[in-house]
Amino acid sequence: MSYLVMARRWRPQQFSDVVGQDHVTQTLQQAIKRGRVAHAYIFTGPRGVGKTTSARLLAKAVNCTDLQTSSLGLPEPCNKCHQCLDIGAAYSLDVIEIDGASNNRVEDVRNLRENIKFAPSALAKKVYIIDEVHMLSTAAFNALLKTLEEPPDHAMFIFATTEIHKVPATVLSRCQRFDFKRISTREIRNHIETIVKGDKITVDDTAMVAIAVKAEGALRDALSILDQLVAYQGDEPITGDIVRQALGLIDTDLFFAATDLAATGRVHLAIELADMLAGGGHDPREFLHGFQRHLMNLLFIRAGGKPEELDIAESFYEKYISSSTMHTDEDFLRMADWASQAEDLLRDALDPQLRLELFLVKIARMDRAVDIGLLLQSLGAEPESYTAEEVRGPVSKAKVESPAPAPVNEPAAAIKVKKDTETAKPDSTDAAENDVTKGPDEPEEPDEPDTPDDPPPPNDPAPTATPPTPDKDDSPPAKGPESDSPENEPQLTLMELRERWEEFCDNAHAMRASLGSTLQAGAPISLNNGSLEITWSDDESLWRDKARKNLPIIEKAFEKTFGTKKRVSVIAGNIPKGAAPLIQKTQSEQNKEELTLVLEDRPVWKHLVERLDLKLKD
C-alpha cells in the first residue's frame, strides 16, 4: 500500500477532532441534536483550516444510524456503521463531492438537477459537497438557484470556498454561512505534538513552533511541512536548526543581532549581518517582515505582556525579556517604521541587498531616544518631566534658592519687578493688573503709581507733580466713597476690557461656577462712564437669561478685576464683527516663552535641546 500523508492519515473523524473551529462544529452538532439541519450550507475561510473535513463530518452525522454522545453532550458519528465507513472511505454513492473549478459549466449543473431527483441508494440523505464553489460561472449559479432554494427532502448541499466575495448574493441568501478562522500558532503546535507522539517522531519545541509559525494558520500546511522534515531528517531528531536549514527560515538570533546594532553603533557589524543573510540565501523582504514581527514581540513584552503569550519557543523567553530593556519604545517604533519603509522600497529596488545593507547601517547609526526630563535632571535641573505644569514651578524655586539670580532666569519675576518700578500708562494692561494685585483696601500712599494722579517717587525734589488732567488738584486720590465717581475711577478702554476678558470670566467663575462659561460666550459692545453692555448671539438665549439673573455677581467680578464699578446691562442681538474678546496666550505658551529665556541663559541645556531636537510637551 502506498504511503498516506499525515494530512490525510490524521484527518479528523469526529467533530471534537477539528482544531480551532469550535464555533462551527458546536453549531452543527446542536442543529443535529435538535433536528434543525438546513438543506444548504456554505463554509468559507482560508486554506487548510477544515472546511471540506467539516463537510464530510456533517454528511456522516446526518446519515449515521448510531450517533454517539460526546463529553459535552453533543452528537458525534460512530465511525462504525457501514454508512460512516463508506463515507469515510469515499465509497458512498450518495455523498457526491464535486470540484467547482472543473465542473463550472451550465451543463454540469443541469446534470446535477436531473440526478438530485432520485432518492439515495443506501443513505438517508444524498449530500452534494461542491468545493471551490466560487469557480462556477454566472450561468451555472443562476441555473442552480431554484434547486438550491427548494431541493428534494432527501438532498442537501454543502459548499466550500476560499473566496466568498465571488459567490453571488442570491446564492448566499439561500445558505447558512459559516466562517472558518485561521488556526492559532499555539493550537497548531499542540496538534503537531499530538501527531509526533502518535507517530513516535522526535521533534523539539523550537522546531514545532517554527513549523506552526511557517504554516501561517493552515493546519494542512503544517502537516505537509512536518512530512517534508521527516523525509529530510529520517530517524534523526528534528531540531530548530534542522527546520531553518530545510525550509530556509531566518534564525531568530539574527533578529536579536539587528536590534543589538543600535546599542553597539558598529557599522561593520551591520555589513557583516547583511552578508550573513545573503550567504544564507535569505530574501531581504522576508528578513524585514520577520524583523517587524520581532520588534512587535519586544514592544509587547515592554507593555507588560508575558513571553508565554507570544508565538516563540520557550528557549527564547529570557532573551526576549532582556532584549526588551535595551531600548525605549520610541527606539523600537523607529526601527519598525524604517523596516516598513525599506520593505516598500524593495519592491522596485534594482539591488535589494544594497537596500538591506543601508537599512542595517541606519540602525547602527541610530541616535538613542532620551527623555528630556531625565536629561535635565541629570544636569541638575529640578523638574522630573518636561511638561507645561512643571516648568514654571521649578524655575521659581531656583530663584528663591539662588542668592543673586539673573532676571533672565526668572522671566515671570523679572516682569513683575519691571511693573513695580516703571511708570505705566493709565490705560495699560500692566497698570490694571497692579491695581488688582494691590486690592481695594490698600492704604493710600503718594509714592505708589496706582492712578494717573499719583505724584512722582519720593526722591523727586518737587513736592507735587503736574497732574495729567487740568481739572484735578495736586493732592493724592483718596480711596473712599468718592472714588467711584467718573473723575477718580481708572480710565478703562474697551480694547483693554477685551484683552482682559478671560481674567474677568475667571473671577466670575470663582464667584459662581456657571458664570465663567456664560461670559465667555458673550462679548462687550459698549463701555460708557457708568455702564457696561454685554451681548450674546441670538441662538445663545440661555446664556443671556442666566446673565440677567446674576447681574449683581457679574458687577462684583468686574469691580474685582478692574478696580472700578460699572452697571452691567445685557443687550439682545448678535455679536458684531471685531467685538469678540481677544484670545490671550495660554499658560502653556507663556511657559514656553519663559523656558526659552531660561535656555538662553544656560547654553549647555540649549545645545542639548537643539542637538536632540526636543520639543516641550503641552
What does this structure look like?
- This protein is an alpha/beta fold and 618 residues long.
- Among the domains are: 6-179, Rossmann fold (3-Layer(aba) Sandwich); 185-247, Helicase, Ruva Protein, domain 3 (Orthogonal Bundle); 252-364, Up-down Bundle (Zinc Finger, Delta Prime, domain 3); 494-572, GMP Synthetase, Chain A, domain 3 (2-Layer Sandwich), CATH 3.30.300.180.
- Helices cover 50% and strands 8% of the residues.
- It has helices spanning 6-9, 22-33, 51-63, 82-88, 106-115, 138-149, 169-172, 185-198, 205-215, 219-233, 240-247, 252-264, 267-279, 284-302, 317-324, 329-346, 352-364, 372-378, 388-401, 411-421, 429-438, 494-499, 501-511, 513-520, 541-549, 551-562, 587-601, 603-611; strands at residues 40-44, 68-69, 75-76, 95-99, 126-131, 155-161, 176-179, 523-527, 531-536, 567-572.
- It has a 5-stranded parallel β-sheet with strand order 4-5-6-1-7, covered by helices on one side.
- The longest helix has 19 residues, at 284-302.
- 28% of the residues are buried.
Entry summary:
By secondary structure, the protein is of the alpha/beta class.
Number of helices: 28
Strand content: 5-15%
**Major sheet: size, sense and barrel closure?**
5 strands, parallel
Secondary-structure class: alpha/beta
Q: What is the tally of beta strands?
A: 10
| Architecture per CATH nomenclature, i.e. the level-2 architecture of the domain at 6-179 | 3-Layer(aba) Sandwich
Radius of gyration: 41 Å
